[in-house]
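Entry: Titin
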Amino acid sequence: TLLPIVPPSITHSLPTDPVNRNRNEPLSFTIEFNSRFEANTTVTWFHDNDVIRNGITTQFTSEYEGRSTLDLGIVSRSDRGSYRVEVYNNFSNISETQRKVRSSVDLSVTISPVEPTEVKAQNLSPNKVQLSWALPYTHNDQQPSSITILLTNLTDSSLIETTLPGSPTNLVLDVVPGTRYRAVLIANNEDGEMSTLPIRFRATPAPPKVTSVVSHRLNMTSFNISVTMDYTGGETISHFDVKFRPRNSSQWSNGQKVKVQDGGRMEMGLLWYGIVTNYSLGKPSELSVEVVNDANERSSSLTKAEVLAPLSAPSTPALLSSSHDSLTLSFHLPSEGTPPVLHIIVNFSSPSHFQWECRGVEDRALGDQLDCTVPRLTSDTQYTLAVFGLGHAGRGNTSQEVSFSTTSVDNSLPTWVIVVVTLVIAMTVLIVLLAAILVLIHCCKLRQKKRKYKFNRRATLGQTAPKPLEPSHAILNRNPPAHMGISRLSEMAPPPISPPSTVTPPLCRSTPSTTVTFKFETASGSSCSNLDSDISDVHSPSYSYRVTPPPPPSTCPSTIQSQQSYHSLGRSSHTHQSLHSTRDSLSSYPPAPAHCATNV
């Protein structure tokens, strides 16, 4: 029987996607194929191009159908890589490439480390704890490459992380006595990590221990003690036992119990303050403090401290600066004695006795430098002074006396005041000068306007010939009209007048106008000022008028006697009327010769 020559083929190939397996997981690969003549068919498996010889099962399920399986069992880290299967049939004269078919797949294996078990904590001492654990036996790939311990302090939430290489099973840790902790172990390898559940434990408490005691005297029967302890995490502190004894004596007094006020847990290096009262000073100068907790655990040692130590003398004061009412001193605080320095006093012994307390001592230590200013002193005075300190032990030693003087009072004005006053005076003078100049300019302008006005008026009167006026003596000698009665005439009569004044005109000049000056006097004889005005200005307060009277026919008159002086007591109506009559009378003079004009 002739059979067709059919090349081999894979009907069910390996997975196309990479395969990943974790620890403790078995794995196998299976393919199905078609191939003629079983005796001439070969199935070969490869791992990273290396032929696999174990764990392979190949069988034909029919005349030309077969199946091949590769069983890897529990995979390990060494099973990682690429897997390939080839089906080959050499019965045929077909080409070599047609006789062989392939299928491949990539395998990744992740093996996490084994989880530590049986984790325990054992207190070796108040400061030491040993952690131990177990690692179950498994495949080597599951053994951790390192162990990490996370230790958390539950009091302050601080974290301590420790990593040990390899696969250890115990570790000794430093801890705080009496403190509670939480521990977690983590096993690590290249593929991952495995952690344990947390465990909790408490470090063994330690008895309290006093490391130092300092005493500050408050008064004659009480003092303050400062106790520094090396004690944490243990039982609550119950009280302190304070004992006293004289210096260089081995006998201690009965203890005085001082209760702790705040209680609670004490941190390492705690500084505790307490007050011991009802204690007579006497001669004791040393004390002992014993710390007791609620478990009646006591301090392992007793510490002595000075109860009373007077302050030494400050250094000799030096003068930093002086003024007319103050002195600034500089000196060093006492270098010996029971701290702190509570007060520094400057003691003045002359010229009078008084004291001054310096400021800023609170934050200073023994031997520190201090600058102190003493105010409200008298100027130009020498003072003798010394310095001493006050502490809990009372007044300390006094420094050496020194003498310093204040300066005299400087009465001179400050420079800035002198400058300001000078500027004010200069500005005032400048303003006055400017005002005077402005007033002078204004007066000059007014005077110039007045002169211009007079000039214009004279020019106007010279061009327009006035009506000839009747001479003044004619006015005075003229009879009143017949129709005017005696009463009316008395109203027109001027008031009593003084003797007539003489007006001496200047020499004849060829001027177009003549000035007539009337001199008015009051009844008491006081003279008014000569006034110069136009005759037509009857409302003006001036009584000098400019007219052009005719001279005598042939010669220029030399003197005209004024027959009457007018009494000026205001501008009454009869005065105005008399003036107009005078002007009319002057106009009756005959015209003057052409060669002159007469000034009357």
